[in-house]
Amino acid sequence: MTTSNFGLDTVNISFLTNPGDKKTLPLVITPRWNDSLQFWIDWATNNRPWLNEKLLQYGAILVRGFQVNSAEDMEAAIQAYQPRLNNTYRGTSPRNLLGSTEYIFSAAEVPANYPIAQHIEMSFLPAPPKQLYFGCLKPSKSSGGETALADFRKVYEDVPLELKQKLLTKGLQYTRTHKKQGAYLTYDVSDMLGWPSLFGTDDKLEVEKMCKAENIPFYWQGDTFVSVTHSQAFQLHPITREHVWFNHTQVFHWTTFPCELWFAFKRTWEFRLLLQCLLVGFFSVIKYGLLRHKMSLDVSFGDGEAISAWEMSQIRRAIHKNMVFNRWQKGDICMIDNFAVSHGRQPTYDKGRKIAVAWSEPLQKANAVKTLEPLVEYENPQERTPTETPMPTLTAETSKALLAELHPHKKLEDHVQRAFAKDDFPDAAFHNLKSLFHEVKQKKMHHRSFSQPPVFEYK
What we know:
The chain is of the alpha+beta class. The protein has helices at residues 37-46, 48-58, 71-81, 152-158, 161-170, 195-199, 204-213, 249-252, 256-268, 271-290, 309-321, 396-406, 408-419, 427-449, and strands spanning 11-15, 27-31, 60-63, 85-86, 105-106, 116-119, 131-138, 147-151, 172-178, 219-221, 224-231, 234-236, 243-245, 297-301, 323-324, 333-337, 341-345, 354-360. The chain is globular and about 65 Å long.
């Protein structure tokens, strides 16, 4: 066959979203006449430059409708586009190699009803994979189970400027703690991965050699592997130079598990998720919020300052705003630019769901953001034309602040209402209930510190 037999007119090209939707993620390729695996292999081989261009433009490509029936088929289909795959894994989820393949792994060996927050694969490492490839061997039959995507270039734009400036100034600190034997009954997913599984050996000397070769700082606490690394929160895309939200804060924070369960419940109205959210939320508040335990993978600002629940809710809100959901179909392959688009897993109670993953060679992170781009153009006051009538100096914000001082009890009521607001719970609950307790404590201290004269009413 000639190359012309594999032109763009031999496949259908569309989008997953409806026409007019601003989220053009992912681009979808389906067969027009020939749905065989061999056709896709030949087509992808002949159209690699075009696929590279579109993956760079849109961030993800969904290949759907071809005869991909096994892990071996998936490996052949992916290597038709990207021959150079990699099988070194230093991520956070337990994974197993599938079938007779060399590069196809189970996506995550954790309970199916555990949510996995959006993240760039291995973003905390010095050299994450350049691209990522997911494949569906068996779709979920019940609600949930999607491998959702989010454009982290848009997430960067939507995170509040003040928080981005704080992250740019302080950076991030990741603390990874892996025991020799992974835990079984835990809500901390990364605690399930022991360091022998992470490195493929239980020989400490071999682990130390690998860490030195891969530039991973580490030390031992008895039989526990500990690695503390510092990283920037953002990267410039290596080709387009766009700003990208490039970190694992939303995965390693202790509020993530219950908040992602709540988000999934609001999407699916699966009440088992609500019960699980309440249970995990109660457990997390006690263990991490009150007793101050650390997760096995912990993230903080670079100087060790904890990322607050309120700051985390701002990050999570920007991510949820840009998420796209796709119901898996058998044989689907999703190719992702790992330096632009994130992925995550929505929880499901279908234990038969089977998703596989592969990744390309790593790419060194060498494009940390130095300064934030100005998001607004500020008006020059000297260029403003004065009006004939001076404007009042009491602004709406000042007025609200004065009213809050005059009506302190109304301020406490607002904290309670915000804490249980539908869209923000449980993120806002963690923050606003804490603010409420602080407010009550301050008022008690005020009454203890100052004696107030009695107030008499004259009639």
